[in-house]
Each structure stands twice: as C-alpha cells, then as structure tokens.
Amino acid sequence: MEGSMKPFSRRKDKPRLSTVTKCKFIKASTSSPTRSPTRECRGVPHHLLGIADPNANFTSDDFKHHASPVVESITIRDRLPIIAGGSNSYIEALANDDSEFRLRYECCFLWVDVSIPVLYPFVSERVDRMVKAGLIDEVREMFDPNNVKDYSQGIKRAIGVPELDHFLRNEASVDAKTRRMFLDAAIDKIKENTCMLASRQLQKIRQLYSARNWNMHRIDATPVFKRSGKEVDKLWDKLVAEPSTMIVKQFLFDKNYVSPHPLIPPGSINMEPVSVQIMAVGAAS
C-alpha cells in the first residue's frame, strides 16, 4: 500500500520505498477470507491484491517480480510505499535477497507485537467474525468432493480451507447435531492453526533480526487489544500510530538518524508465540 507524505515534512534528496501479504495476492471474490474488505483499506491505495491465479502458488520470487515495479511507481509519484504482512518470507526476499532493491532502498521495519494471552482470544474472535461474514459459503463454492484432499496449491493452502474439508464432505449425509459438531471442530482447528502461524511468524522475525541485523522497531500493541469500544481507536493512535509515525519520520528526514540498538537482547524473550505483523517502510539511499 502507499501512504501520503502529509504527516512528514518534505526532503527531496530522499525519495521513498514499498508493498505485501500471502494469500491476498490470489484472485478471489469480495467475500473471500483472503480478501481485504474495502472498509479495512480506509481509502489507502493497496497493490497486488487479487493478481494471482487461485490454483497456482505465488512464490517469493513472484512477489519480487511484481513488487519492485510497484515500489518504483509509488516513489515516482512522491508517495510513501509500505510493505505490510504477514508473509515475512516475501519481505525477506524483497528487502534482503533482491540485490538491486538493496542498492536502491534503505528499509525501516516496524514490528507490531501482541502478547500471547491477549492474542489468542483476539484470533478466536476474528475467526468467528470471518465465519459470520461468509467464510463457510465461500469455501464451499471452491470445494471439490472429487479432490483427494490436496491442499498444496494456490488459495487452497489458505488457513480456513483445508480445515473445512471433513465438514463439507459429510454435511449432506449426517444429522443436524453431527453437522454442527463437525463445523465446530473445523472452526476450532482454524483458530488453532492461526495461532500456530503467529508462533512461526515470531520465530521468523527473530531469525531475520539475528541473521540480517535489520533496522527493526518493536511496537507493543497489547494494551490496545485489551480494550474495546470507542477507546480502542484513541489508544491505537497513542501507542501504535503516533510512535510509528515518529520512527518513520526520523528515519526519512533526520540527517543524524542512527539505527537503534539491538531490539531483542539475547535471552530476553522466551519462546512463547507472539503476534507478529511486520511492516516495512523506507527510503532510497
């Protein structure tokens, strides 16, 4: 996605940077669990959503191929490109493995973290919202009873699809009570696998930090996820949006900016899984 430069003062000698997320690249209907609802985009232009064949895998190399020209097109218009994910292997492929990208751009990474006791209930509630929004019907549309449970390609790899296989194969041949039991079991599995994904993402972030020594800043959003109602937006602005804006502004425009000291001192964090959405923003050298 791309952000306006209005929150920042201008400095023409430092043009701006890039875009990401895994199954959201795949073409799907607007009710798909892999599609970002328009209301969630909040008027911010998003790129690379729905560009891939739903039956094909979208690799990190594919992402590099598509993301680089998007980054360039955004910087040409003097806008701030933002890579948001999710899929840290894609971010690594672009920001570290693409030699041309490394030569042209310097990156600043924001890690929005949520503690595990707070994260898991949020994951559960989010899955429930996805089900209410039409997840079951969407997966049913793509379900093929003749498929031998091969969920290794394209959109069928997405969490929420393979977990519903047993329910969809049997829903027409069992009574209502059993059907409900199968569905509840599938939903519980979706929640479990989503939490496991968060754990793997955390491990990936640690790996990237220790191996790549990226310019990474941790933003603790746990207090935000503990609240509800109108105060959530205000707390998000105070604890996440405002500090992130300050970090990016310093990175882009402060001539004396120095990369932070190590974010994760050895042994300072245990191995419990934590929420890991990672954003990257940057500017050309």
Automatic annotation (TrEMBL):
<keyword id="KW-0203">Cytokinin biosynthesis</keyword>
<keyword id="KW-0547">Nucleotide-binding</keyword>
<dbReference type="GO" id="GO:0006400">
    <property type="term" value="P:tRNA modification"/>
</dbReference>
<dbReference type="GO" id="GO:0052381">
    <property type="term" value="F:tRNA dimethylallyltransferase activity"/>
</dbReference>
<dbReference type="InterPro" id="IPR027417">
    <property type="entry name" value="P-loop_NTPase"/>
</dbReference>
<dbReference type="GO" id="GO:0005739">
    <property type="term" value="C:mitochondrion"/>
</dbReference>
<dbReference type="GO" id="GO:0009824">
    <property type="term" value="F:AMP dimethylallyltransferase activity"/>
</dbReference>
<dbReference type="GO" id="GO:0009691">
    <property type="term" value="P:cytokinin biosynthetic process"/>
</dbReference>
<dbReference type="Pfam" id="PF01715">
    <property type="entry name" value="IPPT"/>
</dbReference>
<dbReference type="InterPro" id="IPR039657">
    <property type="entry name" value="Dimethylallyltransferase"/>
</dbReference>
<comment type="function">
    <text>Involved in cytokinin biosynthesis. Catalyzes the transfer of an isopentenyl group from dimethylallyl diphosphate (DMAPP) to ATP and ADP.</text>
</comment>
<dbReference type="GO" id="GO:0052622">
    <property type="term" value="F:ATP/ADP dimethylallyltransferase activity"/>
</dbReference>
<keyword id="KW-0067">ATP-binding</keyword>
<keyword id="KW-0809">Transit peptide</keyword>
<dbReference type="GO" id="GO:0005524">
    <property type="term" value="F:ATP binding"/>
</dbReference>
<comment type="similarity">
    <text>Belongs to the IPP transferase family.</text>
</comment>
<keyword id="KW-0808">Transferase</keyword>
<protein>
    <recommendedName>
        <fullName>adenylate dimethylallyltransferase (ADP/ATP-dependent)</fullName>
        <ecNumber>2.5.1.112</ecNumber>
    </recommendedName>
</protein>
